């Protein structure tokens, strides 16, 4: 059990969301939320995030070119990678978009997007720089499965590559057929999730859909969204972060609709709003272009609320 994003698929039961409670479901700000800036109590257009077992939130603080972690109930974060300004030195990042935890090596894997590389930073407090794992890839999202394969979405090639640790070439496992709306194509693949059967789920941003590629498949199937940008429950608008639970329910950040929506396998025609969906704004039940999501072991949901420069936590008890 190595990556938190997959760990939770084994232990986590996402609670049922019923009735009209979504309109009053409020989030609590656990990081940032006091305007954009580079102080350690601020974020600036955050993107990917992951939550550790002890509810520490680790955030790709994209426009601050750093990864910052906030322990539970902290009022300030702690910079754990980058934060030395934009650049390509080994102690710098350049618009990092996503981060995950590799428990085996006790390190963070980071998509250092504008440096076109995936880097590893040890979690030891003595760490001052990273090391390059993969070069020359225009990465967006990262995922590590329970066999420790690393999956990287590539917005240059409009595909997803899979890497064995130590291998720098990887193999194409989805897309890679130029940008388009065919079933074997993506138009800007953002975040991804891989289940225990090695099905690869991808938020296909500019096609406004979530795709599922079976192991060895040459094309995917649409599992959420109808490809038209819109706000009906059958639609998505710029999907980003996603999480698939053990029952196969798809939880996806529907950024353009400022909501998180869930599709269950038994009803593939439309989703149910989990949180947000109350228009663009900064109230506790609103988002402004949310980006990624993560669950902790208690089933609490964390969302990077990008243009509000904050991370919101939602509890469903
Ligand atoms: C933080 O922001 C200040 C003010 O905008 C700027 O002068 C400084 O260089 C920034 N620090 C880093 C590490 O980027």
Compute the average pLDDT.
92
| Biggest β-sheet: strands ordered side by side in the sheet | 1-24-23-22
CATH-defined fold name of the domain at 43-251: Neuraminidase
List the bound ligands.
2-acetamido-2-deoxy-beta-D-glucopyranose
- Could you give me the name of the CATH homologous superfamily of the domain at 43-251? TolB, C-terminal domain
Percentage of residues in strands: 35-45%
Annotation, overall tally of beta strands: 24
Largest sheet: 4 strands, antiparallel
Helix amount, in percent?
A: under 10%
The CATH class of the domain at 43-251 turns out to be: Mainly Beta
Give the count of helical stretches. Answer: 1
Distance between the termini: 27 Å
Q: What is the gist of this entry?
A:
The protein is mostly beta strands.
Structure report:
It is built from 1 helix and 24 strands. The chain has one helix at residues 4-11, and strands at residues 28-32, 49-51, 57-61, 66-70, 78-82, 96-102, 107-112, 117-122, 131-135, 139-144, 150-154, 159-163, 171-175, 189-194, 200-204, 209-213, 221-224, 239-244, 250-254, 259-263, 272-276, 290-295, 301-305, 310-314. Mean pLDDT is 92; it is low at 1-11 and 18-24. The protein is globular. 3% of the residues lie in helices and 39% in strands. The protein is mainly beta. The protein has a 4-stranded antiparallel beta sheet with strand order 1-24-23-22, with no helix packed on it. A 4-stranded antiparallel beta sheet has the order 2-3-4-5, with no helix packed on it. The chain has a domain at 43-251: Neuraminidase (6 Propeller). Bound molecules: 2-acetamido-2-deoxy-beta-D-glucopyranose (NAG). Residues 38, 83, 85 line the site of 2-acetamido-2-deoxy-beta-D-glucopyranose.
């Amino acid at each position: 059990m190595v990556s938190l994003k997959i760990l939770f698929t084994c232990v986590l039961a996402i609670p049922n969301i019923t009735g009209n409670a979504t309109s009053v479901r409020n989030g609590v700000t656990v990081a940032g939320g006091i305007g954009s800036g580079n102080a350690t109590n601020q974020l600036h257009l955050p993107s990917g995030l992951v939550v550790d077992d002890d509810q520490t939130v680790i955030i790709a603080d994209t426009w601050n070119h750093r990864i910052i972690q906030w322990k539970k109930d902290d009022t300030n974060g702690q910079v754990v990678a980058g934060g030395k300004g934009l650049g390509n030195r080994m102690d710098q990042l350049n618009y990092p978009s996503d981060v995950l935890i590799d428990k085996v090596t006790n390190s963070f894997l980071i998509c250092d997007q504008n440096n076109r590389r995936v880097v590893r930073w040890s979690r030891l407090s003595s760490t001052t720089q990273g090391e390059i794992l993969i070069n020359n890839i225009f990465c967006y999202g990262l995922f590590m499965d329970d066999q420790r394969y690393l999956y990287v979405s590539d917005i240059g090639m409009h595909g997803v590559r899979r890497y064995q640790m130590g291998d720098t070439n990887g193999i194409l496992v989805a897309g890679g057929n130029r940008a388009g709306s065919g079933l074997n194509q993506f138009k800007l693949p953002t975040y991804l999730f891989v289940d225990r059967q090695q099905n690869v789920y991808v938020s296909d941003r500019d096609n406004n859909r979530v795709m599922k590629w079976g192991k060895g498949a040459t094309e995917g199937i649409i599992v959420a969204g109808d490809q038209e940008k819109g706000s009906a429950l059958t639609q998505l608008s710029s999907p980003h972060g996603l999480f698939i639970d053990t029952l196969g329910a798809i939880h996806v950040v529907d950024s353009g609709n400022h909501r998180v929506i869930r599709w269950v396998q038994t009803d593939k025609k439309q989703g149910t709003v989990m949180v947000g969906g109350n228009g663009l704004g900064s109230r506790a039940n609103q988002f402004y272009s949310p980006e990624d999501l993560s669950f902790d072991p208690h089933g609490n949901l964390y969302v990077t609320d990008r243009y509000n420069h904050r991370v919101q936590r939602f509890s469903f008890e």
